[in-house]
Design a protein that fits this description.
- The protein is of the alpha/beta class and 468 residues long.
- It folds into three domains: 2-246, Metallo-beta-lactamase, Chain A, CATH 3.60.15.10; 259-354, Oxidized Rhodanese, domain 1, CATH 3.40.250.10; 363-457, Oxidized Rhodanese, domain 1 (3-Layer(aba) Sandwich).
- Helix content is 30%, strand content 22%.
- The protein has helices at 37-45, 66-73, 155-172, 204-210, 219-228, 237-246, 262-269, 282-287, 302-309, 326-334, 348-354, 367-376, 388-393, 407-410, 428-439, 451-457; strands at residues 2-9, 14-21, 26-30, 49-54, 77-81, 92-94, 99-102, 105-111, 120-126, 135-139, 142-143, 146-147, 181-184, 202-203, 259-260, 274-278, 294-295, 315-319, 341-345, 363-364, 381-384, 400-401, 419-423, 444-447.
- The strands form five sheets. It has a six-stranded mixed sheet.
- Helix 3 packs across helix 5 (219-228).
- It comes from Allorhodopirellula heiligendammensis.
- Keywords: Hydrolase, Metal-binding.
- One of its GO terms (molecular function) is sulfur dioxygenase activity.
């Protein structure tokens, strides 16, 4: 029996796959994430042994789990593109057109550059019809409603990659049969492509008719769209590319996150290179938190924001609401390359309070209070920390756009004595932004829970602008 399992990693919107054949007992994994036990569990569920681990390309948004999975299962080898790649660890090379047989199905590698120079896609064929693929694992070359961006390797390579991406899309994918199912490397929410669709798979025929990346009349108009209109490149992407090219650290288990009593926690926080992340809700954080903490709430999104805000050599201290969630939170952080944990506060904020240590607060404003405060205090600056696309679609009148993905460096130019109120779509990113500012010494920062959603729910006025 043929087996195909899709694994969606929320937060980074990453898709990986386990494909197997129960008669031969063999399975492959494509683009595994860091916490690899999910693939072991699925293989056992179907009575399969993982024998091959394929990478479509050098990833930028998460740490690859290929080496860790191979080390853990002991029955598999890692297979990487042989085409202009910068891999620096031992693995089997894969060339364009190379065929792999797995019982009832075949896998054929195809060079599909554009997102990266070495990028591969993998056609899936029945053994009895090896020349007719019925599905393709597209990696980051073609998404549902979108395509991979060509600008992640820097300006010097963007033009060449944009042209290669155009050729991949128009001379390869558009020449495939309409019935071919596409299984992409990311779903909606990933910054590896613009406006990726909500569905986790599609068909060539549907994309041919609806995907704007596949419907430009010429290369020049295509290039203008994919390069000039591209969203900002996340700060941590180039760093993770280097990690994945060099060879990610083997992680057969989560790195130790030691429990620290309040006195030890306070001592460690003062050490050089340590950052403190409070994963509680924005309202709990606002009510009282350890000075210097940054509020990145415990939900899948935190993977990307930890990657965006902190250097890989930072040591991470954690404050959590429920200590039984430490392992899940740890894996969310590890996915974007951060595996150096200084510890977590044993007993949570209650233990800190009982020890009598200092607390600070982050004032929360409802949207009604924000509106009143804006009218009564014209010196207050309202910062919209959403993406440029969200900003252009509508924002609070008089607000200033300060995309959170760029704030770690950009806020250095702001006056720390002025008053600021931050908002996003729901308050989650706004709380990250306001707590980051507060940790940098800003004296009067306020957060807006509910943010843009609440503003719209109250029916307040909206300003629209194409300026970001």
């Amino acid at each position: 029996m043929f087996v195909l399992e899709s694994i969606l990693t929320n937060g980074i919107a990453q898709l990986s796959y386990l494909v197997g054949d129960t008669e031969s007992g063999r399975a492959i994994v494509i683009d595994p994430r860091t916490d690899v036990t999910v693939y072991e569990s699925l293989a056992r569920k179907h009575g399969l042994a993982i024998t091959h681990i394929f990478e479509t390309h050098i990833h930028a948004d998460f740490v690859s789990g290929s080496r860790s999975l191979a080390d853990r299962v002991q029955t598999a080898k890692v297979y990487l593109s042989s085409l202009d790649a910068e891999y620096q660890f031992d693995a089997e090379s894969v060339s364009d057109g190379q065929l792999f047989e797995f019982g009832s199905f075949h896998l054929v590698a195809r060079h599909t550059p554009g997102h990266t120079p070495e990028h591969l896609a993998f056609e899936l064929c029945e053994k009895k019809n090896p020349e007719t693929p019925w599905a393709i694992f597209t990696g980051d070359s073609l998404f549902v409603g979108s395509a991979g961006r060509p600008d992640l390797l820097g300006a010097d390579e963007t033009n060449d990659l944009a042209e290669q991406l155009y050729q991949t899309l128009y001379q390869y994918y558009l020449k495939m049969e309409d019935f071919v199912t596409i299984y992409p490397g990311h779903g909606a929410g990933s910054a590896c492509g613009a406006d990726i669709g909500d569905r986790l798979n599609s068909t060539i025929g549907y994309e041919r008719r609806t995907n704007k990346f596949l419907n430009f009349p010429d290369y020049d108009s295509f290039r203008s769209f994919v390069v000039d209109d591209a969203p900002p490149v996340p700060w941590h992407y180039p760093k993770l590319k280097k990690v994945n090219a060099t060879g990610p650290e083997l992680l057969d288990r989560l790195p130790t996150i030691p429990a620290l009593p309040p006195d030890e926690f306070r001592r460690v926080q003062r050490e050089s290179g340590v950052v403190l992340i409070d994963t509680r809700s924005m309202l709990a954080f606002g009510g009282g938190h350890v000075p210097g903490a940054i509020n990145i709430g415990d939900r899948p999104d935190m993977s990307a924001w930890v990657g965006q805000l902190f250097d890989l050599n930072h040591r991470i201290l954690l404050i959590v609401e429920d200590e039984t969630d430490i392992e899940n939170i740890g894996w969310l952080i590890v996915r974007t390359g951060h595996a150096n944990f200084a510890g977590y506060l044993c007993g949570g904020m209650k233990s800190w309070e009982m020890a009598g240590y200092p607390l600070t607060h982050l004032q929360q404003l409802t949207v009604d209070e924000l509106r009143t405060r804006q009218r009564d205090d014209p010196t207050m600056t309202i910062l919209d920390v959403r993406s440029p696309e969200e900003w252009a679609d509508g924002h609070v009148p008089g607000a200033t756009h300060y995309f959170i993905g760029e704030m770690r460096d950009r806020i250095t130019g702001l006056d720390k004595t002025s008053a600021y109120a931050t908002y996003c779509a729901s308050g989650y990113r706004a709380s990250i932004a306001s707590s980051l500012m507060k940790s940098r010494g800003f004296e009067n920062v306020l957060n807006v829970p509910g943010s843009w959603s609440a503003w719209n729910a109250r029916g307040f006025e909206v300003e629209r602008s194409q300026e970001a």
